[in-house]
Amino acid sequence: MEKKEPVIDAKVSQEEQINPQVSMLNTFFRIHDYLVAHATMPIRRQLMDEINWNDRLIAIKGGRGVGKTDFLLTRVREIETEWRNLPVPLTKRGKPSKRKSQRDIRPCLFVSMNDFFFTQHTLMELAAAFAHTGGKYLFLDQLFKYPNWSHELRRCYAKYKHLHIIFCATPVMPIDEDNHELERIVHTYNLRGFSFREYLNIQTGLRLPSFSLEEIMQRHASISREICERVQPLKYFHAYLDHGYYPSYLESTSFEAELLKTMNSQLEVDVLIIKEIDVACLHKLRKLLYILMHDAPCALNISTISEEIGLSRATTMNYVKYLKDSRLINLLYPEHKNFPMKPTKVYMHNTNVAKMDFARQIAPMDLYETFFYNTIHGAHKVNATERSAMFIVDNKYYFDVKESVSVRDTIRPTAVGELELGRGNQMPLWLLGFLY
Predict the structure, then answer these.
(1) Domains of the chain
(2) Tens-digit pLDDT profile for residues 55-81
(3) Does the first or last residue of the chain, that is N or C, have fewer Cβ atoms within 10 Å of its Cβ?
């Protein structure tokens, strides 16, 4: 029996033959629809409401594993939902119009720039095709894998005035002042891992609000009491320090294995590829990270470390900076000092990473200091101080961090790891996890 050819929609086939751009966009839209349908973000991130989505070029910057892709896909879903709820245009007789209207346009397109399409085609071609259909919001993931990405973004921004481009950026990608192509036109926002507040809301189903640092400093006793009437935060705090910063804890059966992959990607991609370092240096970079992980929080002895890993002092210091830029470590500097000056202390970027040295039993106080620095420095400047205080925030607030509460009140604001309710100058450390 003669084999029959599959039936194909002649109308679609003819349209695609006449205009190859239609075929290209349809393929991208199929992938787009699948990704949007399967995106998971268990809570609405506070950053979503802090972004001015009317800006035409937006960078969402964040370390690996903090959920940048799902963040963009969630925004796509919101826009498309609003678009579908636009009123159906009516004819003069009050009946639904059959003419194509704004409501029929696909407003968003999410594209990963590691698609093989971009080995032979340009971002400009994609933007042109999408803009021609009336598209409004172009979301780009994995942009660092596209050569000359900043120049292409600049061209798209200049040519398609009605198009809004939102893209994910790794911490080591030059954006703002480090990129003359994009300075003054790109608006950069930082997406961080889950705060303790977000983690607590996920675990309990509550909708606890965030507070400013000034609010916490002035009202920590009453705020902590109000929260503790609804939940016991200390029951969740140590679990957060162990695994709550990265969204992958919600999906992975082995959080440690997933975090190990994330950390290796930060080294192999964010540092080696983007910073264009010889792959032969990967072992030394990993060794440097492990040395710091084993001792942090610690002073930085560049001479000893350089000798141990077999690199010059200058190269070692550059590698330390790369680890900071990729958000694997944090560097605490004295006031008014910064790289390339020697930092006062090295911290791991967050407590989840700090606990990845399985050969070390990390002290609670080390975790509490690491948490304090990580949760504060996202929106505030944190420095070491020459006074007896451990930290100075925004050049005006002196802070101490302690493991347990003091019988007598402290002189300056003190964040206490094992304290549930604030008293005097002693505030619960967990409450600082409510800054975002």
Answers:
(1) 10-190 (3.40.50), 196-434 (no CATH)
(2) 999 999 999 999 999 999 999 999 999
(3) N
